[in-house]
């Protein structure tokens, strides 16, 4: 099973109080051409928080402290009945730097009310709105149709909201 992360930096615009989330338009890899949060696969020896912070730095140049990330979700994506990816979802209002484009990602601040769910993974509209409202979620999402996952069809899902994520499946929150 692939172990991966997503990170959603949030800010409150000082001029009109709009809550915004930093999304990326993914330029390569899984989900290329779609919007998502910064994130990616965990490397050997990293905690999930360290992975989320590294991917956020590498993809958009924002510095986030692993300890300042708030765990918001644990998602399992299954493909044709088999576990494909475990995704650990974080959010944070604490970061430094200005988002900058990279080979992997074009960053864009988007109002939390205007997230482009029609240009994202089909599962995102099920879990991301609650995550952006500050809730916690555990979910299982089933896809069918063979590899790659981003060309498979989203079939169905189960979600549990307002769960305790203090201890992740591997013991690291
Ligand atoms: N169904 C899904 N919904 C979603 O919102 N994000 C998903 C998803 N399935 C995978 N992802 C995310 C998790 C993770 O952030 C990312 C994994 O994409 P990649 O394999 O391109 O990872 P990397 O950016 O680490 O790539 P490399 O740099 O090539 O290792 O896709």
Q: Mind explaining what this structure looks like?
A:
It is a single chain. The protein is mainly β and about 170 residues long. It has one domain: Nucleoside Triphosphate Pyrophosphohydrolase (Alpha-Beta Complex). The chain is built from two helices and nine strands; from the N terminus they run E-E-E-E-H-E-E-E-H-E-E. The chain has helices at about 50-60, 125-130; strands at about 1-10, 20-25, 35, 40, 70-80, 80-90, 105-110, 135-145, 155-160. Strands 1, 2, 3, 4, 5, 6, 7, 8 and 9 form a nine-stranded mixed β-sheet that branches. Ligand 6U4 binds near residues 87 and 123.
- Distance from N terminus to C terminus (CA atoms, Å) equals 18 Å
Largest sheet: 9 strands, mixed
What order do the helices and strands follow? EEEEHEEEHEE
Q: What is the overall number of helices?
A: 2
Described by the principal axes of the CA atoms, the overall outline is globular
Which strand-content bin applies to the residues?
35-45%
Number of domains in the coordinates? Answer: 1
CATH topology: Nucleoside Triphosphate Pyrophosphohydrolase
Entry summary:
One of its GO terms (biological process) is DNA protection. The chain has 173 residues and is mainly β.
List the helices and strands and how they pair.
Layout: E1 2-12, E2 19-26, E3 35-36, E4 39-41, H1 48-60, E5 70-79, E6 82-92, E7 105-111, H2 124-132, E8 137-144, E9 153-161
């Amino acid at each position: 099973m692939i172990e991966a992360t997503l990170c959603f930096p949030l800010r409150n615009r000082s001029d009109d109080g709009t809550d915004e989330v930093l999304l990326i338009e993914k330029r390569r890899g899984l989900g290329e051409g779609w919007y998502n949060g910064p994130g990616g696969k965990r490397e050997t020896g990293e905690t999930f928080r360290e992975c989320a912070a590294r991917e956020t730095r590498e993809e958009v140049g924002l510095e986030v402290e692993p300890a300042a990330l708030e765990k918001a979700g644990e998602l399992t994506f299954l493909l044709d009945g088999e576990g494909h990816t475990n995704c650990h979802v974080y959010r944070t209002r604490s970061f430094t730097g200005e988002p900058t484009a990279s080979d992997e990602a074009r960053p864009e601040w988007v109002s939390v009310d205007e997230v482009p769910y029609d240009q994202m993974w089909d599962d995102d509209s099920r879990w991301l709105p609650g995550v952006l409202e500050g809730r916690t979620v555990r979910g299982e999402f089933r896809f069918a149709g063979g590899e790659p996952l981003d060309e498979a069809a989203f079939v169905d899902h189960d979600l549990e909201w307002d769960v305790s994520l203090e201890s992740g499946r591997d013991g690291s929150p």
